From TrEMBL:
<protein>
    <submittedName>
        <fullName>Biotin-independent malonate decarboxylase subunit gamma</fullName>
    </submittedName>
</protein>
<dbReference type="InterPro" id="IPR029045">
    <property type="entry name" value="ClpP/crotonase-like_dom_sf"/>
</dbReference>
<dbReference type="Pfam" id="PF06833">
    <property type="entry name" value="MdcE"/>
</dbReference>
<dbReference type="InterPro" id="IPR009648">
    <property type="entry name" value="Malonate_gamma"/>
</dbReference>
Length: 238
């Protein structure tokens, strides 16, 4: 789904979203609330320029519109793999974006992310996964790494990874598997405007992804391990 069609369904009361070099920004009306909209389109890779543009838009919202909700529209093929971006320290730019979203949440902004097309690797981690809650459309493509690339990196045969992906959502792409792992709160299929209103009302700054992954059977060890680490740390301080 292109972002213009998506915006019409999300914001039947109107929006002022503009696209500049695959970067989306603006505002829209959701019920009786105005929300800031920030995102990307055309499967754009996240390079230093677009990471800074998104970070700037978040900071402007925090400065000029205290506690205004923020909607992040996600469509990216991940971080841009260019020598220039690596030499400039793309990891620092993406970390800066993540910190800006964290600042917005800490400042009382409800932050919702929606994967409406592609969400891959670092471009997704520092945007959609930094929100209070991340949602996805049914046809969205979500993965950290494709299985052929994973096979090359891990030296595990691709056939073995394909077999593992049938039962283990960690290895499998797709929004349903990210719902099982707790990374995606739910899949929106129906009235998108109503889904957004509900998501904003339910937004919780408490990170419950590990708990959701355990409840849904997709990540069985994340919560117990993190709790053990915290308990061991408390015991050490005592």
């Amino acid at each position: 789904m292109d972002w213009q069609t998506l915006a019409q369904q999300l914001f039947p009361l109107g929006h002022q979203i503009t696209e500049t070099d695959a970067f989306l920004s603006g505002s829209a009306t959701v019920g009786a609330t105005t929300v800031a909209v920030i995102g990307t389109t055309n499967h754009t890779p996240i390079g230093v320029e677009i990471a800074l543009a998104q970070a700037r838009a978040v900071l402007v919202t925090v400065r000029d519109f205290p506690q205004r909700p923020i909607l992040i529209l996600v469509d990216t093929q991940g971080q841009r793999l260019r020598h220039r971006d690596e030499m400039l320290g793309i990891n620092s730019y993406m970390a800066h974006l993540g910190k800006c979203i964290a600042l917005a949440r800490q400042s009382g902004h409800r932050v919702i992310a929606l994967v409406y097309d592609q969400a891959l690797s670092g471009g997704f981690i520092t945007s959609g996964l930094m929100a209070d809650a991340c949602y996805a459309l049914p046809a969205a493509t979500i993965r950290v790494m494709g299985l052929p690339a994973m096979a090359r990196i891990t030296k595990v045969p691709e056939e073995r990874l394909i077999a593992l992906a049938k039962d283990n959502p960690v290895f499998a792409p797709g929004p349903e598997n990210y719902v099982r792992m707790g990374g995606v709160q739910a899949i929106w299929d129906g009235d998108l405007a109503t889904s957004l209103i509900t998501a904003l009302a339910d937004a919780d700054p408490l990170d419950r992804r590990s708990a959701l992954g355990l409840e849904r059977g997709g990540r069985k060890m994340a919560l117990p391990v993190s709790q053990r680490v915290m308990n061991d740390g408390d015991a050490g301080q005592a």
